[in-house]
Automatic annotation (TrEMBL):
<dbReference type="Pfam" id="PF13855">
    <property type="entry name" value="LRR_8"/>
</dbReference>
<dbReference type="InterPro" id="IPR001611">
    <property type="entry name" value="Leu-rich_rpt"/>
</dbReference>
<feature type="signal peptide">
    <location>
        <begin position="1"/>
        <end position="19"/>
    </location>
</feature>
<keyword id="KW-0677">Repeat</keyword>
<dbReference type="InterPro" id="IPR003591">
    <property type="entry name" value="Leu-rich_rpt_typical-subtyp"/>
</dbReference>
<dbReference type="InterPro" id="IPR032675">
    <property type="entry name" value="LRR_dom_sf"/>
</dbReference>
<protein>
    <submittedName>
        <fullName>Oplophorus-luciferin 2-monooxygenase non-catalytic subunit</fullName>
    </submittedName>
</protein>
<keyword id="KW-0732">Signal</keyword>
<keyword id="KW-0433">Leucine-rich repeat</keyword>
Amino acid sequence: MRSIVFLVALLGFFNNVIAKPLEGTKQFSDDFFNESDLKGQPELQELIKQRPNPWEMRQAYGVKRQLKTFPCPDAADIAPCICYTDERDLLHLDCSLVPTEKYLETIFQQNFPVKHFQSFDLFDNSHITTLGDIFNGLTFVEVFVERCVNLREISQYWLADSRDTLVYLSIANTSLTSDAFPFISMDSYTRLEALFVPTNDFTFIPPIHSATIQGVAFESGMISVIEPDTFSNLPNLTYIGLSQNNLTSLAASTFVFSGVDHVLIYIYLYSNQLQHLEPGVFSVQGHPQNVTMRLHLENNKLRTVDEEVFRPIMPYLEFVQLFDNPLECGCDIVWLLLNPTYLDKVDPRAACSDGTLLTDLDLADYESFCSIPASH
Ligand SMILES: *[C@@H]1O[C@H](CO)[C@@H](O)[C@H](O)[C@H]1NC(C)=O
Ligand SMILES: *[C@@H]1O[C@H](CO)[C@@H](O)[C@H](O)[C@H]1NC(C)=O
Ligand SMILES: *[C@@H]1O[C@H](CO)[C@@H](O)[C@H](O)[C@H]1NC(C)=O
Ligand SMILES: *[C@@H]1O[C@H](CO)[C@@H](O)[C@H](O)[C@H]1NC(C)=O
Ligand SMILES: *[C@@H]1O[C@H](CO)[C@@H](O)[C@H](O)[C@H]1NC(C)=O
């Protein structure tokens, strides 16, 4: 280490702040978080909702976690990073307290007897501004970089050594812009299933390529455009989180699902500014078996439930959430109102702009005054 004095000061900090939870006697329930949930067809939506703050999650593991001399490196060599094993003998590395990227890089020059880790954590760190090619041969299954509010750039190669191990990448609440995030390297990870990158400074998402990604999350940002090719190179995608962004319209072929059997598709678009959905924006192709779609469009600016947009996906929809949209409820929705099977799939809170629930509309009036379109 370059500065002994600095290291000693840091170790004091480490002992005071971090050692305490390790010695805690508090019991955490076992159903806290189970990483095996990430395997197979993941219920990613449940996961993102139920997953506690990962920092707390690690602390919870910390009750049972063990600081071992092997397989961990010498604790002093890597301080303020903490290496530990959990009750399943998986190895974790938490570097939340590092003061600079350079310091982090120096830590990875130390002797690591075992180079494969389950997770790398970097939480609540306001010092780190860039993450370059630092890991020096260490590999990870899960990487969490969260609430690092001054992080502005990540190198395309920073996780190159984890190309065959990385399954779950979560980078949230940073100052990363779309140009500073390595979207371009996603196709180099041969096992990546989840790209969870909410609450960053993204304004657009470039095309992402990956044969393996099943879930992407971009909630709570300033994204105003999604191009039809953004997700078109993700054949295994079944979970898309885009809620709480600034989307105003979506073009045809933005969300196309083909060749995926036996899947539950989640599309989260609530709390945007959506006014216009082009026909074909959601489509399921190739008559796959047993595909169910849950579509969240609540709290947008939609004035109609366009037959051309929604009728083609009705066979697949489990439900569509449409409440908090200023629906005009003219003859444009008669196709929906007069088909009980379809109407059943619309969440009952859906209402017209005057507050009348769709389910309370007088269907006889619609039958008399709107000419019913020929059945398809
Ligand atoms: C995690 O889930 C798997 C499969 O559902 C189960 O077999 C295992 O016991 C769980 N582990 C914990 C620690 O709850
Ligand atoms: C982002 O991080 C900052 C600083 O830690 C925190 O104050 C803020 O609540 C976080 N926002 C979210 C959405 O997590
Ligand atoms: C696609 O996802 C399924 C689970 O839904 C998985 O079994 C399959 O291996 C994945 N395909 C690729 C190429 O990763
Ligand atoms: C949302 O998008 C509009 C243009 O479509 C832009 O004028 C506005 O500044 C954006 N708002 C945010 C918070 O990015
Ligand atoms: C349908 O797919 C779901 C996964 O989304 C699966 O759990 C279920 O067993 C499948 N049902 C049939 C009849 O294949």
